[in-house]
Amino acid sequence: MALPEDEAKQVLESEEETSENEVLEPVEVDSGGESLATALSEVEKFKDLALRAEAEMQNLQRRTARDVENAHKFGVEKFVQNMLPVLDSLEKAIEATDDKVDSIAEGVRLCHKLMVDTLAKEGVEILDPIGEPFDPNEHQGMSIVENPDMEPNSVFAVVQKGCKLNGRLIRPAMVMVTKAPSVEAEE
Description:
Layout: H1 4-21, H2 33-74, H3 77-96, H4 103-121, E1 124-127, E2 139-146, E3 155-160, E4 162-165, E5 168-171, E6 173-179
Parallel strand pairs: 2-6
Antiparallel strand pairs: 1-4, 3-6, 4-5
């Protein structure tokens, strides 16, 4: 087995022998036009890559900022969803008092108003769409009722109010929708 030093000597000796036997041919020297063009094209390629990387970083920063903003904006969504049944219960208690003016009924009304105001400060909007046109993006139709006094396809009654948090629907309003009265054929 040959040592690496011996192999290196053999390679050098064989190169010397071949170079002595070869006749040197003239080598054409390029004026640098092709190599310059190649170098310039590589420079353009790397410039393009750098611009793309910078644009990607800016997009990433924008996406991250938007995600953080949404996290701040909608971070209380679960809390709001858990508070809506409490709000519903307060509304049912107010309805059950039949506009009596006793102290308990007044206390429940004040608690309800305080809760609605507090939720509004946090970006919560209560949807009470009586008389509005039915919007399937915000309302959940529970039944259809004939009513000649109202516009067809409008909300006749609200079974349960809906809720939005900073413009995002949290709970659709459960509503009863009107339809045009059916025309009876006269005989």
